[in-house]
Every structure is written in C-alpha cells, then in structure tokens.
From TrEMBL:
GO MF annotation list: metal ion binding; peptide-methionine (R)-S-oxide reductase activity
PANTHER family attached to this UniProt entry: METHIONINE SULFOXIDE REDUCTASE, METHIONINE-R-SULFOXIDE REDUCTASE B1
Co-factor requirement: Zn(2+)
Highest taxon above the source species: Bacteria
Record has Transport as a keyword: no
InterPro entries: Met_Sox_Rdtase_MsrB, Met_Sox_Rdtase_MsrB_dom, Mss4-like_sf
Statement: the UniProt record of this protein carries the keyword Oxidoreductase: yes
PROSITE patterns given in the database record: MSRB (PS51790)
BP term (GO), one: protein repair
Family affiliation: Belongs to the MsrB Met sulfoxide reductase family.
Name of the featured protein: peptide-methionine (R)-S-oxide reductase
Known EC number: 1.8.4.12
C-alpha cells in the first residue's frame, strides 16, 4: 500500500544530502559510470532514499552499459509512477516514487526479457538494503 508523504522543501533539505536533494527533489541526474550502485552486485532491496519505500529487488538488476543502475521490473508496479518528460528536447518517461514523488530516473524500452524495460535509476535516489545472511552456529 502506498502512503503519500508530503514534506516542505526545508524538511527535505534537512533529511537529504545536497546531491540527494538535487536529484530527487529538483529532478536532476547524477554523473554516469561513477555513481554508487552502477557496478554493485550485492543482493538486497533497493528502497527510495526519501521515504524508504521498497522499489527494486537486486534480482532484477542488470548491466545495461548506460552508466546508471538498471532494473527490468520494480518490486510492486504501483510503487513507481511515470510521467512524460520533455526536457532537453527529448521525449522520455520520467520515473518517480509514488509514495513521496522523488525523482528516480527514466524508463526506456530497450531492456532485457522478460519485460523489455529498462528502469534507469539514479544511485542517489535509492538505498540498498542488503539481504541478511544466516549463519549456522553448529558449523
């Protein structure tokens, strides 16, 4: 279930780093290839940096060569909203968290099976919550 979060700009600025604010609240894009999760292969759930809403499972992450973390499907389809983005003389589908309206990235139709979609996401807009490993105390 999506619980809408509304905060003032001042509240967001106090919660986020300047880079996180710039990307999630001002709809900017981080630098390609040098961002935190582009090459990460650790297993877990990627959640919205603003509201902690689970967005992507690492099992849907793949190497797109785009310079940003890419996923072929969200965990829950309605956790991510889509709106048209006409900036920079392009027509793209902008992705945002449906819980807090944080800008996440863009959606492209050049992804792998089974969806053929590429959710191209700014690392700055997500946090990886690693799966917990269970140790066997009898070993």
């Amino acid at each position: 279930m999506i619980n809408k979060i509304n905060r003032s700009n001042a509240e967001w600025k106090s919660k986020l780093t300047p880079e996180q604010y710039k990307v999630t609240r001002e709809h900017k894009t981080e630098q390609p290839f040098v961002n935190q999760y582009y090459t990460t292969t650790e297993q877990g759930i990627y959640a919205c940096v603003c509201c902690d809403q689970p967005l992507f499972d690492s099992n849907t992450k793949y190497k797109s060569g785009s310079g940003w973390p890419s996923f072929w499907s969200p965990i829950i389809k309605n956790s991510i909203g889509i709106k048209m983005d006409y900036s920079f003389s392009m027509i793209r589908k902008e992705l945002h968290c449906n819980n807090c309206q944080a800008h996440l990235g863009h959606l492209f139709l050049d992804g792998p099976p089974p969806t053929g979609l590429r959710y191209c996401i700014n690392s700055t807009s997500i946090n990886l919550k690693k799966y917990k490993t269970h140790s066997n105390p009898s070993v």
